[in-house]
Amino acid sequence: MKIKYKIALYYTLSAAFLLIAFAVLAYYFSAASRRAEYLDRLEYRARSIGAVIIENDQVQIGLLRKLDKTTFQDLYRESILVYDDNFELLYTNLRDTAVRTPRKLLEYVKQTGHFVRNDPNGETVGIYYREGNMAVVVIVSSYDKYGVQNLRSLERILLIELCVAVLLLVGIGYFFARKMVQPIDRLVEQASRINADNLQDLRVAVKGRDEIAQLGANFNTMLQRLSHSFDLQRSFVSNASHELRTPLASIISQLQVTLAKDRSGDEYRSVLHSVLEDADGLSELTNGLLQLAQSELNRQAFKFTPVRIDELLWETGDFVREKRKPSGRTDIQFLQEPEQDTLLTVHGNEPLLKILFINLLDNACKFSNDHTAWVTIDFDVRHIIINVRNSGPGISRDEEDQVFEPFFRGRNAVQTRGHGLGLSICKRIVQLHGGEIRIEPSESGTSVSVILSHE
To answer: How many CB atoms sit inside 10 A of residue 255's CB?
Structure first.
């Protein structure tokens, strides 16, 4: 069932339930009010009869008969029964009708002084009236013809009103539900036209400040992120395929040329060295692609533990020196002495942080004229700042914002072997740790600063 039908149905059912409840209550209280008013009227009539029939400690039947012919016959189907203290019938207005009143009822009226009964044939009130030495039991019955007719008219009016109200509620509920869901229908219609080829061109229309407008705004933001992700994916696939194709083509061509004819041992060794160099480059590229894919995972996919940054830097420094042996060298210095271990500790994923600093130190050694990575460690109450600097040709200012993109290589790296993945991997790892990475180019080298929060 569509949402607009559900809204209309729930609205109609809720409103109809409330209307029925109010109608039932109105009918119930009207019926109770009619009954109470008519019983009071009968009781007043019974007491009036008792007051008339007893006068000077005597029963005045004649006077009651005269009054009966004039004023008492104004109630519909009224019956009057008057009994003495011994339950002997003194007076009745019924003609040609056998009167049978249960003795238990008369005894009950005498004991309690009051009796009320309501049945489909009418209401009955009995009282025990005493004046001086005389006492009588007066029982008055009547049918509230006009009150019941009014009650039935009220019942018919309420039923008709309920039927009309329910029909109106269905129409009004559907109309308003349709108006409420209309922005969602437009959102669905516009979203159905969106695909991977037109993410940049299509946006859903956003009007107002309600939840649906907020949904549309969030949807547009999601489209922007998807568009950016698709662009990165296309760029990544294009660059990765090109970077992978180049060493593979070089290896294949060298092997084909070498196998075309017999060659000397020195020539074979030269070719093998060249192929090994291309294979090493291919291995580095593959590792870089794997690291980049790993860094694209969400924070929840990694286990975060306390990590001592100084110890990790010493470890990665040894790794880079061993990798670039004998030319690679790292110089690590503290700008101030830490008073507590927590000043050098961050809450992070140690394997990812190791990849981060290996890439930074290896790049610094690779681009330094003396193959040295200059590292400084500083901190404050909230952050730890790691600065890695090289002494080689610096990155130009116009390339400063592009160096963190995958496969981008600056003009200073044209003569240096690499694939342009290191800094993009570093930036993503720093972002996963909620930190910040900055690059400060200059003519005499490039400085990269990593700012991470303490544990």
So the answer is: 13
Among residues 332, 307, 318, which one has the least CA distance to residue 387?
A: 332
With tokens 């060659």, the residue in question is 263
Structure tokens at 427: 């930036």
- Looking up tokens 């730890």 gives 384
449 beta partners = 387, 438
Q: With H, G, I as helix, E, B as strand and everything else as coil, classify residue 411.
A: helix
Three-state SS annotation for 123-163: EEEEEEEEECCEEEEEEEEECCHHHHHHHHHHHHHHHHHHH
Q: Are 449 and 387 in contact (CB under 8 A)?
A: yes
Instruction: Report the distance separating Cα 394 and Cα 386, nearest Å.
Output: 19
Q: To 5 degrees, how large is the angle CA 385–CA 388–CA 390?
A: 155
Q: Rounded to the nearest 5°, which phi and psi values hold at 403?
A: -70, -20
Burial 146-161 (b: 16+ CB within 10 A, else e): ebbeebeebeeebeee
The per-residue pLDDT for range 150-187, each reduced to its tens digit, is 999 999 999 999 999 989 988 888 888 888 777 777 77
Q: Give CA–CA dist 225/233, Å, rounded.
A: 12
- Angle of helix 3-53 versus helix 145-192 axis, rounded to 10: 170
Q: Would you call 55 helix, strand, or coil by DSSP? A: strand
DSSP 222-274: HHHHHHHHHHHHHHHHHHHHHHHHHHHHHHHHHHHHHHTS---HHHHHHHHHH
Cross-strand bridge partners of residue 338: none
Residues facing 366 on adjacent strands: none
Yes or no: say if 412 and 399 are a contact pair by the CB < 8 Å rule. no
Residue 340 Rama label (left phi>0; alpha psi -120 to 50; beta): beta
**Model confidence, pTM:** 0.50
Per the CB < 8 A criterion, the answer to whether 275 and 254 are in contact is yes
Q: CA-CA distance, 383 to 345, in Å (whole number)?
A: 10
Tens digits of residue pLDDT in 117-145: 988 888 999 999 988 888 989 999 999 98
To which residue do tokens 């990798």 refer? 323
Handedness of CA 30, 32, 33, 39 (dihedral sign): positive
Whole-angstrom Cα distance, residue 181 to residue 3?
Answer: 7
